[in-house]
Amino acid sequence: MEINDIIKPENQVYKSSSILTDKPFSYCPGCGHGTANRLVAEVIEELGIQKDTIGIAPVGCSVLIYEFLDIDFSQAPHGRAPAVATGIKRVLPDKIVFTYQGDGDLAAIGTSETIHACNRGENITIIFVNNGIYGMTGGQMAPTTLPGMKTSTSPFGRNVETMGNPLKITELIAQLDGVHYVSRQSVNSPANVRKAKKAIRLAFESQINKQGLGFVEIVSNCNSGWKLSPIKANQWMEENMFPYYPLGDIKVDGKLIKTL
């Protein structure tokens, strides 16, 4: 029996998205970025918008997405992706424009660009990967680092008395009138991957339908920065990140559906 007699279309469980390039992911083993990249690719393919989509990513692990998705991209300085996306969308209003950013980027150096783009209701999509740390640049404390969480710049744990409280940027953004859809998801389990994909699709559809800005946070691990194995990093995330950053839709069709 030939191998082609066994592998038939009706027996195929999964097929890689045509939007993904042939380049293997270079993220750390166990990192959630790879799954998040795949979901973005699948949504773009399923919506049939490959030729009309422009992605923007700045500095950090998020910048690697350029290598893995076969779409047009523009790089932005650290934190400035929403500003670049605003310019591109206004010049090319028929294009589908999205940013792909980490927490050190979006919620720290890029706080101003993020808040004001959302407040203006720019018709773009923002995908925000939150792992509570600066993953690429040395494991420093980020605005989303949890209380007591150890990083290279908070070796004894984040002290909220001197370092402030973690920033729940997604809840802040959800209260802005210009934002149409806001959701927080994760990619740590098959069930959560499906929910994250649905949220990403809804965020893109908000833009396609000219309803306003769609914002999706993806709570992820950083096993390298956290100094944990991928399995233990996911466990730590479930036990510590999820209680502080609860998953689920926050704003749908311009209306808050969660008490903030």
Explain what you see.
This protein is an alpha/beta fold and 260 residues long. The protein has a single domain, classed as Thiamin diphosphate (ThDP)-binding fold, Pyr/PP domains (Rossmann fold), CATH 3.40.50. The protein has ten helices and eight strands. It has helices at residues 3-6, 33-47, 81-91, 103-109, 111-120, 160-163, 169-174, 190-208, 223-226, 230-244, and strands spanning 53-57, 72-75, 96-102, 125-130, 179-186, 213-219, 248-252, 255-256. Strands 2-1-3-4-6-5-7-8 form an eight-stranded mixed sheet, sandwiched between helices. Helix 2 crosses helix 8. The longest helix has 19 residues, at 190-208. The termini are far apart.
- Biggest β-sheet strands, sense, barrel: 8 strands, mixed
CATH class: Alpha Beta
Structural class given helices, strands, pairing? alpha/beta
Low-confidence stretches: none
Oligomer: single chain
Name the CATH superfamily assignment: Thiamin diphosphate (ThDP)-binding fold, Pyr/PP domains
Termini Cα gap: 60 Å
> How many structural domains in the coordinates?
1
What is the radius of gyration computed over CA atoms, rounded to a whole number of angstroms? 18 Å
| Shape assignment | globular
| Number of DSSP helical runs | 10
- How many beta-strand runs? 8
Arithmetic mean of pLDDT: 93
Question: Do you know the CATH topology?
Answer: Rossmann fold
List the secondary-structure elements in sequence, H or E.
HHEEHEHHEHHEHEHHEE
How helical, in percent, are the residues? 25-40%
CATH architecture: 3-Layer(aba) Sandwich
Q: Strand order across the biggest sheet?
A: 2-1-3-4-6-5-7-8
